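[job 4471] stage=fold_predict status=RUNNING
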Amino acid sequence: MCGRFSLRLNRGEIQQLPGHDVDIDEWVDEDEYIPRYNIAPRSQAPVIRHRDPESSGSGASNDNSLIMQTMKWGLVPSWSKFEDKTLNTTNARSENLVAGGGMWGSIKGKKRCAIPCQGYYEWLTKGKEKLPHFMKRKDGKLLLMAGLYDSVVLEGKTLWTFTIVTTDANKEFSWLHDRQPVFLSDRFALARWLDTSSQTWTPELTKMVQPYSDTSTPLECYAVPREVGKVGTESPSFIEPITNRKDGIEAMFSKQKRMQATPSPSKGSSSPPGKRKHESSPSPSKERGATRPLSFKDSPSPSKRLKSDHGDDSNQPEDAKTEVASKSVVKPRASPSKRKPAKKEHPPPKNNTKISSFFGKAPT
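[job 4471] inference complete, writing structure tokens
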């Protein structure tokens, strides 16, 4: 399926469709489109279609000129009496188009369009988590998705809406989701899809809505930030690989890998300030399990002890790290073997009878 896509280019660049060699005569309701990285259902987005013969001015039924028109995502059928927001028409399944009948029967042969985008988002279900990914063309050109459109007059105003046609995911990306949009990889595919001269669904169109298989225009897919899941949020980081972010856990792991790849210094050289304990040059005195007792001189400095406890990737702010480091410093204490016992002062003997009797009585 397709529930979000991105189109954040300037309007002039969007109308030129760079890389597709397609001429767009005009953009109807251009001012109603706001370029966004996170386009969700019920939002306005540009679509490409053939100009209506009755509005071309020439009266010709074979007018092949293309126009771009801003429409609302989520098709509202022409027979609707009101805009039913509970109706899920953001996607149209290709098998329903092929089978015939249903709500798409009246428009699939007459009102086909293409939706340009930089890429679309899909969520990978992993246990209880849903991880957003971004799918795009490897060459960076705009991706064209096949669609249907319709119009209806509600409260005196014409409402133009569209839906995106989906099919089974190809084998390369079936790990992500079992559905994906129908892609129009070049101007020839675009011309065939937009050609409604027969006003019917043809076998050639059935072939076009099969799983994507154009090896000349490969696609790529990568994980993107989870913030894209919230409707209304906007950021250029939404279409960039999450590994390119300079914040968060991805940056932490990237930094850790860089440090682990740094070769250990030769024996006798001083370790750099940011070196981890397990990356320092091995020595008998510093190895885990060494038999010689660790003296104060052998203990790490405050900064090295901090990194040994918390690592360079700690989430703590710098002031908290400093506080931990200050508490970790242990002041040296004198060894018991080097202490000298204090001398006890004894008072002089008074009338010691034993000494007097031993030497005898002094002569008078």
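[job 4471] summary: Helices lie at 11-16, 94-99, 187-194, 203-208, 248-261, 302-310, 318-328, 353-359.
[job 4471] exit 0
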